[in-house]
Amino acid sequence: MYDLKITGGTLVDGTGAEPRRADVAVKDGVIVAVGPDLAGEAAETIDATDRLVTPGFVDIHTHYDGQATWDSQLEPSASHGVTTVVTGNCGVGFAPVRPGKEEWLIQLMEGVEDIPGAALAEGITWGWERFTEFLDVLDTRSWAMDVGTQIPHGAVRGYVMGEAGARNEPATADDSAAMAEHVREAIEAGALGFSTSRTLAHLAKDGEPVPGTFAEREELFALGRAIADGGGGVFEVAQGGLTMLDRGTTTEEMGWMADLAEETGQPLAFMVLQTDTDPNLWQDVFERFDKLLERGIPMRAQVAARPFGMLVGLQTNHPFAKRPTYQALAHLPLAEQLEQLTRPSVRDAILTEADGPLNPDNPFDGIGPFLSMMTDKMFPLGTPPNYEPLADASLGALAAAAGNDALTATYEAMLADEGKAMFMLPLFNYADGNHDAIREMLLHPGSVSSLGDAGAHCGMICDASIPTYLLTHWARDRSRGAGIDLAQAVHLQTQRTAELYGLGDRGVVEQGRKADLNVIDFGVLALSQPELIHDLPAGGRRLVQYASGYDATIVSGVVTRRNDVDTGARPGRLLRGRR
Fold first, then answer.
1. Record's InterPro entries (predicted)?
2. Are residues 294 and 328 in the same domain?
């Protein structure tokens, strides 16, 4: 008897092959049969008639490093069909750590990834020093999905070099050798890779660039060789030149990245975004990338499936946050704020006064003046959310068409929906005002769908929903240009992402693979509007975005979500090493 049988569904198997009618049978957490009209009884049968059956989604760019120590569900990823996550990206994480230096790592993560420090301080259950001990602690936990992790450069540098490492002083040969030993040991113990950041966009809470930002070639190569020596894994990098304010360009960084990947034979994953200052630079990157792939160099480009930026609103960030009259109201509950903000006298005061003094310890404190100049790029998100709006739908354009002042119109708009209205501000991947460049990047044979940052940027974005967006927008709903074939959209977030991290036991629905599966009502699958909740430890806030249309999500043959509701089952385990 099977443990589980899914019958009558349209199978999209993750390989990119055409969908087909097939049943799927599961025993002991493994897919044991795939085919039409499978015979045999099962302890549980799921009728998937008129439904899609896909592999579970593999999200390789998350920041659940702290959350995984206190949260077994790992929302919002759990609500988007994700059955495997990889953490430890962008050179930040919580191991190794010197006793007494925990707060430094918290502030590093808070600055780079906008995760509330108070939540991390209260929520993380420490109990490790070396990275191997961190893995041992994670090994005692279970989740609604499998969790793999990488060893981060920032933590390693701080552990080995102390203050000199934290302040980005050059590493000596002995320093590099000591760091390499940590990386080798971590890979041997099951880390899926090593991560580093070289972009000036990644700053600790004190404004210092992430340790490793200016690492020299000798240091980087010592760490890359350690990955190979430990048994292999991914070298993940947020490279210099990533943003419009950065030093250098991605094409310049590709020299050392290609040399490292070629020498070690290990996959190197870098990031590609379209910027407004040079909208066609990504094409130059891919032109050079093509030549590297022709030489067989194992590199992959991490790309985002939708515009990359921030959500603006009364509850998140907005142009009036530092104006004294608003500051006096900021502590109030949302309903009470709204009551005050709708008063003409309060509105007039906020619109006419200057910003108050900035907090030098908060790098985002001065964002109000920036946002006040960006009304032509702020778009009402709406319900259902629209991530590909026309230019004339921006707050600035709508105000101009009505003969109104843009900032006044922005003020009024952010009070809509009981103060919960959200506006998309695309800082990357929207220079052309459409998704055509995103589509081309996604479909490049060297790309992986990534950069959702699940668990991070808690008060700015919620791109953990990208797996659902690949299906709703790209495979079904896009009207402003070509979409993406359903089979390819599934492939991009299953087999393609799993293979990069050597997770050959998942990402495809076939006999012998791990029984990580989704049953999806494709016709009704939908994203909700992002919302702000306060459920992190210490009352910390975060943006979440849920989905509807997942009949079932299955991890190791166990149903973890049924009809978009968590079942309480926790079959997810720590991933140790490639398989």
1. Amidohydro_3, Metal-dep_hydrolase_composite, Metal_Hydrolase, Metallo-dep_Hydrolases_sf
2. no
| Percentage of residues in the chain having pLDDT higher than 70 | 99
Domain that holds residue 347: 311-426
Please, what is the Cα angle at 137 between 222 and 463, to 5 degrees? 75
Decide if 413 contacts 380 (C-beta within 8 A): yes
- Residues in Cβ contact with 440 at an 8 Å cutoff, skipping those fewer than 6 apart: none
115: Cβ–Cβ under 8 A, 6 or more apart, which residues?
Answer: 63, 66, 109, 455, 456, 458, 540
- Using the 3D structure, point to which of 369, 396, 426 is the last residue of a domain: 426
Question: Distance between CA 364 and CA 252 in Å, rounded?
Answer: 29
Q: Are residues 302 and 351 in the same domain?
A: no
On the question of a cis peptide bond just before residue 324, with omega within 30 degrees of 0, the verdict is no
* Domain boundary, last residue among 400, 426, 452: 426
Residue 253 to residue 247: CA distance in whole angstroms: 10
Q: Quick one: 137 exposed, middle or buried, by C-beta within 10 A (0-12, 13-18, 19+)?
A: middle
Strands 308-312 and 423-428, by their bridges, are antiparallel
Residues 441 and 551 in one domain: yes
505 pLDDT band, cuts 50/70/90, is: very high
Tell me what percent of the residues of the chain surpass a pLDDT of 90: 94
Axis crossing angle, helix 153-161 with helix 173-189, rounded to the nearest 10: 130
For residue 419, is it within any domain? yes
Q: Residue 361: what pLDDT?
A: 67
- Per-residue pLDDT band for 499 (boundaries 50, 70, 90) equals very high
